[in-house]
Every structure is written in structure tokens, then in C-alpha cells.
Amino acid sequence: GEDVEQSLFLSVREGDSSVINCTYTDSSSTYLYWYKQEPGAGLQLLTYIFSNMDMKQDQRLTVLLNKKDKHLSLRIADTQTGDSAIYFCAEGDTGRRALTFGSGTRLQVQP
Amino acid sequence: DSGVTQTPKHLITATGQRVTLRCSPRSGDLSVYWYQQSLDQGLQFLIQYYNGEERAKGNILERFSAQQFPDLHSELNLSSLELGDSALYFCASGGASGNEQFFGPGTRLTVL
Asked: Is the backbone peptide bond immediately before A111 cis, with ω within 30 degrees of 0?
């Protein structure tokens, strides 16, 4: 079955770059997503990438995809305290619309 | 604000009871997805409806059921509640392409 793995915790200093990593197992994954969840809130879609792309940049966010290794990363440039949250990686395909989520990476940004 | 609304925000009930969670998708979205977020299981897909029809089923218990109405809002019914059903229940909506899913704020269910 599908499986998505993430490290549990990342701590960075304000102004540094953060890199959150994710690996997935399903070769048929068509779309890979990054969601952000702040305490007591829902999941906010940050960005997503098609599996035929290697990179996507959106302001401070850069997504890198290594399809051969089934590895996805999210880089947040100039990390701010407001970026402190849990970041979820998820995968889906055109046939199976439901998303499979990783366990989430808690990002702590220290001032 | 994603445009997806869920009510109620919090629900506290007792074991054995039945509750209904409600979701209104974003304007124009035909798909509604239900997910459960718990500490031990993480985020798990429960069920999807598209334009009133059940489209996909995930790890949904037989005690749980859902439907999508003609106005596209959806309800998730949870019955014979157990302590382990305590979780955050999220609804997400998506358009015809299915590429994006936008999540509501969730309903926190506590079963005592």
C-alpha cells in the first residue's frame, strides 16, 4: 500500500532556511502536496507538484522532487516565527483521489 | 480561510451516542472528502463524495456513514461512539480536476 514518511521534528533559527523532507512509496503518485497545520487549525494547502516536475518555486517556498528516489522536500527561505507549525507531506494520483498523508514534521522556529 | 465550513467546531458526547458532523464545500466544488486525524493513526481518509454519489471509501468503520445532499453539503454520521473515536474530523473539498483539496477547520469530537 501507499506509505509516506517524514521526520518528526525540525528546529531552526529565525532567518535561516528550513528543509523538510518526505519519502513516499507509491510509484503511481501523480501529485505531491505540502500542507501546513497551525495549532487548533485546519490544514492549509501550501503548494503541490506534479510528478513530472523536478522543482516548483512559490515565493519563499521551493519544492524539490526526486522521482527516482521517491523523495520530496520543502525548503522555506528566510524562516519566520510565523512558520512554526506542523507540515504534512501527502501524495495522491488521478485514480485514487484520496490523499495519503505523512505523520507530519513539527517545525520550531527560534528567535 | 479555505472557504470550506464545518460545524460544530467542538462536540463532546458519551460512549454509545450518535453524532452528525456537517460540512459545506467551497462554492463550485463538487467533491467532498472526510478525514480523521488522531494521535495514534495520524490523518486518515474516510470517504469521498462527488456530486451526491459515493466515489471512494477508505478506512471508514461500519458505524460511520456519510452522505452528500443536492446542495452539495455533506454530513458524516458517527454512531455507537467509542472512546477511540475521539479525534479531529476534517472535511475537504475539491473541484472536478481533483488536483487540489482544501480543508475546513475541523470538528473536534471528544467521547467521554
From this structure: no
